[in-house]
């Protein structure tokens, strides 16, 4: 069983619920992003999602887009993500999943990326724009280096695509709660439960975490009632952008406050 899955299942079995937290590598600088990520893990994030800044972030809302643009303007290079992962995993035991669009992985080399991620202590990849049908190289490399591979399932996914994503994901299936870009919303889309139910029907033993639109402690708790974890990104990035690391730590503590620690 993957480290990510072990954490999610252990907390679920204990009735605690899980918080998956996103932060972009290199924002605003490499070292500051490492410090922020470590602080998140120490403040209540159960699984860390470390984002790779990308020049064309089609799924990201304005808060994350601005942060990743800052990272790129400050000189972030793709190879630095492995440095960040190694520095974070040296300080905390929290599973670190790298979230990246697929083009940077292709440019780096799929096996090279998998090898270097594993060597740095990373748990695996979340690949928002890669579907399993087109991921043969990644499936092979992730098996070779024992890495998690998190595929997405959306409200518009067909039953066969949900089944495929569920069968081939390792760690968890990323259940997209709404159609659109990331960012806080006042109400979670009711379709989130439908997406999770589809994954459960495909494989009752597979983990599924819900992301996009989660920004309050109440939503984190609500999502954990029917899934294995709540994914939060924009709320954390905004907190850091507005108040630095102390504001970020406070936001993590706030959003995890209704989960049993």
Describe this structure in words.
This protein is an alpha/beta fold. The chain has a single domain, classed as TIM Barrel, CATH 3.20.20.70. Helix 10 links the parallel strand 8 and strand 9. Helix 2 runs parallel beside helix 11 and helix 6 packs parallel to helix 7. The model has no long low-confidence stretch (mean pLDDT 93).
Rg: 16 Å
State the fourth-level CATH superfamily: Aldolase class I
SS summary, helix count? 11
Q: How many distinct beta strands?
A: 9
What is the first-to-last residue Cα distance? 23 Å
**CATH overall fold name:** TIM Barrel
* CATH class descriptor: Alpha Beta
Shape: globular
Beta-strand percent range: 5-15%
Indicate the mean pLDDT.
93
Number of domains: 1
SS class: alpha/beta
- Poorly predicted runs: none
Assembly state (oligomeric): single chain
Order of helices and strands: HEHEHHEHHEHEEHEHEHEH
**Share of helix, binned:** 40-55%
Major beta sheet summary: 9 strands, parallel
């Amino acid at each position: 069983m993957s480290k990510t899955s072990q954490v999610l299942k252990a907390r679920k079995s204990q009735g605690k619920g899980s918080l998956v937290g996103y932060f972009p590598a290199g924002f605003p600088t490499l070292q500051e992003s490492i410090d922020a990520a470590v602080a998140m893990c120490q403040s209540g994030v159960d699984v860390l999602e470390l984002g790779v800044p990308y020049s064309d972030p089609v799924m990201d809302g304005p808060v994350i887009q601005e942060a990743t643009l800052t990272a790129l303007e400050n000189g972030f290079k793709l190879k630095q993500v492995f440095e960040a992962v190694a520095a974070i995993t040296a300080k905390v035991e929290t599973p670190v999943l790298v979230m990246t669009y697929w083009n940077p992985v292709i440019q780096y080399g799929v096996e090279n990326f998998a090898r270097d991620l594993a060597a740095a202590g990373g748990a695996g990849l979340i690949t928002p724009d890669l579907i399993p049908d087109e991921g043969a190289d990644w499936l092979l490399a992730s098996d070779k280096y024992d890495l998690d591979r998190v595929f997405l399932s959306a409200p518009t996914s067909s039953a066969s695509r949900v089944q495929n994503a569920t069968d081939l994901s390792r760690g968890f299936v990323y259940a997209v709660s709404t159609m659109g870009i990331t960012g806080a919303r006042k109400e979670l889309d009711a379709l989130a439960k439908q997406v999770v139910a589809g994954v459960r029907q495909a494989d009752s033993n597979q983990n599924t975490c819900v992301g996009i639109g989660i920004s309050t402690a109440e939503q984190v708790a609500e999502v954990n009632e029917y899934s294995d974890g709540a994914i939060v990104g924009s709320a954390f990035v905004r907190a850091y952008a507005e108040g630095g690391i102390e504001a970020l730590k406070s936001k993590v503590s706030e959003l995890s406050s209704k989960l049993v620690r």
